[in-house]
Amino acid sequence: MQGTFAKLKARANISNSQKQLLSTSSGLLLLGLVFSLLSPYFFTVNNLLTMATQTAVIAIIAIGQTYVLITGGIDLAIGSNMALAGMLAALCMRANFPVPVAIFVGLVTGVVSGAASGALIAYAKIPPFIATLGLMTICRGITLTLTGAIPISNLPKSFTAWGTDSTLGIPNAVISMVVLMVAFGFILAKTKLGRHIYATGSNYEAARLSGVDTKRTLVIAYIFSGILAATAGLIMAARIISAQPTAGDGYELDAVASSVIGGTSTIGGEGSIAGTFIGAFVIGILRNGLNLIGVSPFIQKIVIGVVIVASVFLDKVQRKGD
Questions:
Q1: What burial class does residue 216 get, using C-beta atoms within 10 Å of its C-beta: 0-12 exposed, 13-18 middle, 19+ buried?
Q2: Structural domain count, the chain
Q3: Is the separation of the CB atoms in 245 and 149 below 8 Å?
């Protein structure tokens, strides 16, 4: 009977996520319609590609945050991981290391940080908020110390093409986002590891007793979050042709917002990558559309905050109804 609990809970939670996905998709379409009516520039190819490129980084880090939230945790170190990965890769390139080696170093940084967070939570029993808050501060401190808070510019074209160029008319950053969404969506929805992640978040002790290696599952979830944050940090550095020590500041909140709007439960056990993908674009459309109609960036923060709170409230109402 080992794993039976995990399979049943995963199926039930995926079904709930599919219901939420439908309502989130409807909201996304409604937003698109509203801004199309308010601005003639919204529904143009150039604007849509720009919006997709701007949303790519948020969507990628939100994928990792979704894994973590489903386990019942949270990763506050995402933004700092982005900055550290981009900065270490840039330092390697400035030291004339090959670009692939520099990228590898950046990705390993995310793996190490994620593994550290997961180990502190799973084995040292430190609450996720505290553990990742500590890693957030450590990673940001390392980034600032390595560079003296000075950006690194003039990165090689072979690297910046990842964030600035297109393939068949589609921005490379957007292609990366779609590939990662499909890959990690498949892992979560169709594999044994995905079932274990859902089960761990639904009921940690029951999952452990049913044969799930809950500690290992937690560590893997945080490693995924770390490597996706590092990937996003590298794409951001490539896109702005510079590694910034303050990159990713506050992005962990965008990741949580995308996941929650997309139907991921804040208490664990439910969520989907497809929902998170749509949630990221809800935020992307809001920012892009509000910019086009001239709304102040300060007001935009209020609007997005209201949307997040409303999403959580509706989620709780729906659960009571179920």
A1: middle
A2: 1
A3: yes
Asked if residues 280 and 64 have their Cβ atoms less than 8 Å apart, the reply is: no
Using CB atoms within 10 Å of the CB of residue 104, give its burial: 0 to 12 exposed, 13 to 18 middle, 19+ buried: middle
Residues in Cβ contact with 246 at an 8 Å cutoff, skipping those fewer than 6 apart: 83, 149
**Rounded to whole angstroms, what are the CA distances from 224 to 39, 185, 197, 227?**
38, 12, 12, 5
Quote the domain boundaries for residue 217: 4-321
What is the signed CA dihedral for 111, 101, 86, 286, rounded to 10 degrees?
-80
- The residue-averaged pLDDT of 221-225 equals 97
Contact, 248 vs 240, CB < 8 A? no
pTM confidence score: 0.90
Q: Which CATH number characterizes residue 59's domain?
A: 1.10.3470
Neighbours of 230 (CB within 10 A): 32
Summarize pLDDT for 165-217 with one digit per residue, the tens: 999 999 999 999 999 999 999 999 999 999 999 999 999 999 999 999 999 99
